[in-house]
Amino acid sequence: MKKQIWKTIWLFSFIIGTFSLNGCTKEELLSQIQHESFSMISEYTKTKYRINIMYPERFNTENNYHTIFLLDGDDYFNEAANVIARLSKEKIVLVGIGYADKNQRGTDYSFPEDKDFPGDSGGALAFLKFLNNELIPWVEINMGIHSSDKTLFGHSLGGYFALFTLFQQNQTNPFDNIIAGSSNLMWYNAYLFDLEQDYYNAFKGLEIRLFLAVGDLEGASLNLFHDAFVEKLRSRSYSGFSLNFERLKNTSHRNSPIVTFENSVSILF
């Protein structure tokens, strides 16, 4: 019976995490925003990505910037770029990661693979290699973007991936800040709780700033898992670790991404 309950949660969380973005109205970019786009195919994931970059108004390749890598760039890039512009954050470069062809977020943002979604889940390790070995070097070398620090933003299943990246032991975590909104902590029998425990058993340092958020209208399960994960992290004594967490008032799953982004950017920068 317990196994069946968890299976129901997996299926529900995958559907919500993968398809809840459909139907969102995309905001137009403010006219003063400087941006450009390009595509690249990853050798690791075999997927073609569409990359959008927002530059500060007075961008200079000799300067260092806070570089934010935004998951689900197809859906959130314009809104996130407008938030940065409205907040007058002159030292931020925004890199939106989207898809040129079929959206593969269900594969890229999840691990382990769920046998109920063969070929459509479990690719997070390959996607992290894409970020580490292809995308980040490309924007640094070919786009002339030098980072004083790097931030990863993810929402829902993207939030799961952001936290998955945080507790990796076999790959380098290239990020100084992690923003995880409405994270799908239910994925694969709450695998992230075990991953964090394994990390804590091996390391007592975690040199990173973490911002977690969840909306109060996102349902009991999402809030319950969020609270449990926050309490687990608060009980740790990681050296160099900074944790911010927030429950967003009157906020649903669809509305939480940009609210989380704006609040976290205001706090982190």
Structural category: alpha/beta
The total domain count is 1
CATH homologous superfamily - what is it?
Alpha/Beta hydrolase fold, catalytic domain
Q: What's the helix count? A: 8
What is the succession of H and E elements? Answer: HEEEHEHHEHEHEHEH
> Helical content, roughly?
40-55%
Strand order in the largest sheet: 1-2-4-3-5-6-7-8
At CATH level 3, the topology is: Rossmann fold
What value does the Rg take, in angstroms? 18 Å
Percent in strands: 15-25%
Quaternary arrangement of the chains shown?
single chain
CATH architecture: 3-Layer(aba) Sandwich
Q: Flag low-confidence runs.
A: 1-8
Pfam family, one: Esterase
Protein name: Esterase
GO molecular function, one term: hydrolase activity, acting on ester bonds
Keywords: Hydrolase
Topology overview:
Elements: H1 2-19, E1 34-41, E2 48-55, E3 64-70, H2 73-86, E4 92-99, H3 105-108, H4 124-141, E5 146-155, H5 157-166, E6 177-181, H6 187-202, E7 205-215, H7 220-234, E8 239-248, H8 256-268
Parallel strand pairs: 3-4, 3-5, 5-6, 6-7, 7-8
Antiparallel strand pairs: 1-2, 2-4
